[in-house]
Amino acid sequence: MATKTLTTTSGNPVGDNQNSLSAGRFGPLALEDYHLIEKLAHFNRERIPERVVHAKGAGAFGTFTVTHDITQYTKAKIFAEVGKKTDLVVRFSTVGGEKGSADPVRDPRGFAVKFYTEEGNWDLVGNNTPVFFVRDPLKFSDFIHTQKRDPQTNLPSAEMMWDFWSLSPESLHQVTILFSDRGTPKSYRHMNGYGSHTFSFINHANERFWVKFHIKTAQGIKNNTAEQATRLAGENPNDATQDLFNAIAQSDFPRWKFYVQIMPEHEATNYRIPAFDLTKVWPHKDYPLIEVGILELNRNPDNYFNDVEQAAYSPANIVPGIGFSPDKMLQGRLFAYADAHRYRLGINYHLLAVNKAKSPTVCPYTRDGFMRCDDNGGNAVNYEPNSVGGPTQDPQYLEPPLALHGDLGHYDHRQDNDDYSQAGDLFRLMDSAAQQRLMDNIAQSMQTVSRDIVQRQLKHFHAADPAYGDGIAQRLGIK
Ligand code: NDP
Question: What predicted TM-score, i.e. pTM, was given to this entire model?
Answer without folding.
Answer: 0.96
